[in-house]
Amino acid sequence: MAKVLISDQLSERAIEIFQERGLEVDFKPGLSADEQIKIINKYDGLAIRSATKVTAEMLSAASNLKVIGRAGIGVDNVDVSAATSRGVVVMNTPHGNTITTAEHAIAMLFATARQIPAADSSTQAGKWEKSRFMGVELTGKTLGLIGCGNIGSIVAERALGLRMRVLAFDPFLSEDRARDLGVEKGDLQTVLARSDFITLHTPMTDQTRGMINKTSLAKCKPGVRIVNCARGGLVVEEDLAEALKSGQVAGAAFDVFTVEPAKDNPLFGCPNFIATPHLGAATEEAQENVAIQVAEQMSDYLLNGAVSNAINMPSISAEDAPKLKPYMDLAARLGSFAGQLTETGLRKVTLTYRGHVATLNTRPLTAIALEGLLRPQVDSVNMVNAPLMARERGIEVTEVSNQEIENYQATITVSVETDRRQRSASGAIFGGAPRLVRMHDARMEAELKGFMLFVRNEDKPGFIGRLGSTLGNAGVNIANFHLGRAEGDGSAVALIQLDSACSPEVLKTLENLPDVLTVKTLKFD
């Protein structure tokens, strides 16, 4: 009989579901990390929330562990890479607490608009300071959404019901989806400059970390109020503290912090600052929902091998897995390649399967390509929820299959249409390994792996030498150099595999080289 450990506080209903499905379950919240490591080898499944830290050390001791179920969205407390390398499936429950988190953001908007916590403390202290707590109305004000995915779209709906104007920045929000939601789409600078209130609903990535900082705060409308119920670290807390003290920011309400538990923070004690201890998902309904979901998902996997909402494993039947495996890798890398090069709103994605691959079940290939495409901008995306997330953003997804063979036995092409351009990338399998064979109008043969640099330039003599010298002078070693010439527009494309990441300073130097049209850093797992 499979055995499950619940190591964090979880609804009793989760225990009941495991038992009803015939699984043995131990409920042991509050164990120390050392205590967890001592007993984890006895369990096939581990159900957690955010308190348990699933480290590489714990996983190395988990000799029988098959699945980790996170009751909630974020898996920051799980070493997913280590779990993957040990064959442990990591699942989450991406939609169980979206309503609750969105409602908390709305509550924080009201709290900061009317200074409710401070007014409550003052009144209960025996004071009657009506004039001190002059608030502002939400009606008629502009709410700036940074991130308009599942939670952000719910916040938009609630804000529109409060008669607010909603302005949204999300690179993956199409014009059609924005119209359906009733929001105006804008770039980040527009949202900063026009918003009376700003609320964040974006994942933590290299692009979003510290996105609200001294520079961006200076571009905001004086007296703006900022709410963050998304991720700690999206805001540079020291910069916001200065802006609150100067009055540039009239108020802020945070549920998440860079370091948690947040017992000492630059924002604490600042004027008109409100803090809650990561309560976004803390309602009875949400906790019940995520507990039920995680117990059902883990039971399904342990009993019959069914996989849903997996972070690190595709949902494929045992029969299809051997045939699809090399193409899964190819589709994922092509999607990631296109996603890392996409900077404006996606409108349409077309997956074209030609040759042998067109005879296979291509739905998981499309799903994993969408995962790679969306991952740079969307939190907790996996091949299970990627198609849903694409639909939520109004992205049209089309599959085209053609069993005729052209230059290769099988090719996959990912074509992307954005607000500004169209781009495509085609790949094939060489010797069992995935290769890029064409990028839009340029033929090339390149392996998509590790740290890479994408460069598009005017096809003129001397450019490659200048490019190589610049990287060499910066101490950046080139592992592989792939070239392709575009057809008809006088440009060329280079894909350069590097031994290490390219720093922002080196990237800036490359952008300033003569004849450079585009430079972009890429990273593949």
Q: Can you describe what's shown?
A:
The protein has 525 residues and is α/β, with parallel strands linked by helices. The protein folds into 4 domains: 3-95 and 284-304, 3-Layer(aba) Sandwich (Rossmann fold); 98-275, 3-Layer(aba) Sandwich (Rossmann fold); 316-440, 60s Ribosomal Protein L30, Chain: A (2-Layer Sandwich), CATH 3.30.1330.90; 450-525, 2-Layer Sandwich (Alpha-Beta Plaits), CATH 3.30.70. It is built from 17 helices and 22 strands. The strands form 4 sheets. It has a 7-stranded parallel sheet, sandwiched between helices. A 6-stranded mixed sheet has the order 14-13-15-16-17-18, with helices on one face. It has a 5-stranded parallel sheet with strand order 2-1-3-4-5. Strand 15 (410-418) and strand 16 (422-430) form a beta hairpin. The model has no long low-confidence stretch (mean pLDDT 90).
Main attributes of the structure:
525 residues; alpha/beta; Rossmann fold; 60s Ribosomal Protein L30, Chain: A; 4 domains; 7-stranded parallel beta sheet; 6-stranded mixed beta sheet; 17 helices; 22 strands; 33% helix
CATH architecture descriptor name of the largest domain: 3-Layer(aba) Sandwich
Strand order of the largest sheet: 8-7-6-9-10-11-12
CATH class placement of the largest domain:
Alpha Beta
Strand fraction band? 15-25%
Number of strands: 22
- Please state the CA-atom Rg, rounded to the nearest Å: 25 Å
Question: What's the end-to-end separation, in Å?
Answer: 36 Å
Let me know the average pLDDT.
90
Shape: globular
Poorly predicted tracts of residues: none
Q: List the domain count as a whole number.
A: 4
State the major sheet.
Answer: 7 strands, parallel
Helix coverage percent: 25-40%
CATH superfamily of the largest domain: NAD(P)-binding Rossmann-like Domain
Estimated structural class? alpha/beta
